[in-house]
Specification:
The chain has 4 helices and 5 strands, in the order βαββαββαα. The chain has about 140 residues and is of the alpha+beta class. It has a single domain (about 5-135), classed as Alpha-Beta Plaits. β2 (about 40-45) and β3 (about 45-55) form a beta hairpin. α3 (about 105-110) packs antiparallel against α4. The termini are far apart.
Length: about 140
């Protein structure tokens, strides 16, 4: 079994309601545990930035479902790579809320001080998520 890491950005779709974030997290944590997927989600009421880690087939299946979810639009794949080890091995789905996103953290890995994952490279997005992971642990 190969491990892969997929990082994507998306914008909130028209069908998204603020209460959906709790539903998304609940479903992701439940399904990811069953599928052996780990990762992290960063959300700021406009954008999603998510990292998924696991077997190639499990990550691909999960991403396919995300692509058909109307709560997401303008989905952009930032990175897809084979990995030797997971960066988020202890979390079925870690979560960074808007309140935890600081200009200082974002500017460290982006050309902007406002959270906009479309302006980030895949490596920068991973570094930002890893930085948030360290703050949460």
């Amino acid at each position: 079994m190969f491990l892969v890491r997929l990082i994507y950005a998306s914008t909130v779709g028209e069908s998204f309601k603020p209460s959906d974030i709790e539903s998304i997290l609940y479903s992701a944590r439940k399904n990811n545990k069953q599928q052996g997927i780990t990762g992290m989600l960063c959300f700021n009421s406009r954008y999603f930035l998510q990292c998924l880690e696991g077997s190639r087939s499990a990550v691909n299946d999960c991403f396919s479902k995300i692509q058909t979810d109307t709560r997401h639009k303008s989905i952009m794949l930032l990175s897809y790579t084979e990995i030797a080890h997971r960066a988020f091995s202890s979390w079925e789905m870690g979560y960074v809320s808007e309140q935890a996103i600081t200009k200082r953290s974002v500017l460290q890995f982006s050309t902007k001080d406002a959270f906009d994952p479309y302006s980030m490279l895949g490596d920068s997005a991973l570094s930002l998520l890893a930085d948030f992971r360290q703050l949460a642990e």
